[in-house]
Amino acid sequence: MTLPTPLTEPLCTLLDALLPPSCLACGAPASPDDFCGRCAESVEAAPTGTVACWAYGGAVADAIRACKFRPDATLADALGRRWVARLQSGACAPLPTVDGIAFVPAHWRRRLARGFDLPAVLARHLAAMARLPVVDALGARRVAPPLSAGADRALRAVAVAGRFALRNDVGARRLLLVDDVRTTGATLGEAARVLREAGAEVQEAALAVVP
Ligand SMILES: [Zn+2]
Fold this sequence. Notes:
binds zinc ion; two-stranded antiparallel ribbon; Rossmann fold; alpha/beta
């Protein structure tokens, strides 16, 4: 049955309130915005001193893949809230002093297909926590090619070269640039390069980093 559009969102909110919270990765009962006990066994913290929420792998990888490829906007918000909670509890290094939160954008076709952009959702949660603006500075010129987790640094660097373009002027602002996963750092580095060339001072952060 297809619900009339105006009813869908309130109904989802109502169902969220009525249903018990479920694990970010597998859907089993769990604390709100957290992993169940079984999935938590495969969750590792990010390296000490980074803003990142987790090391990429295990249930963290399952949750991020499900969020992007199912796709699941509710899960994207839950991941954002979880990152904020871990930052506020001191489980990750504190956010650096910046003037705004930028994000690594997906190509518009991908955003249209998913209905959201996970890095943009994460940026919104960090910005709300820090009372900073979200800086929508970059556009993706082309769709990211599918790269296997084993794709090496050189291959990734070639794949991302020239992928991003400046959409809005950033001036000399200090920005935190957010992505969902940092693999070799090629994508974040390429997006940061465009912002730096436009005059910004850029620091990079990801929800999960490949150790
Ligand atoms: Zn689970």
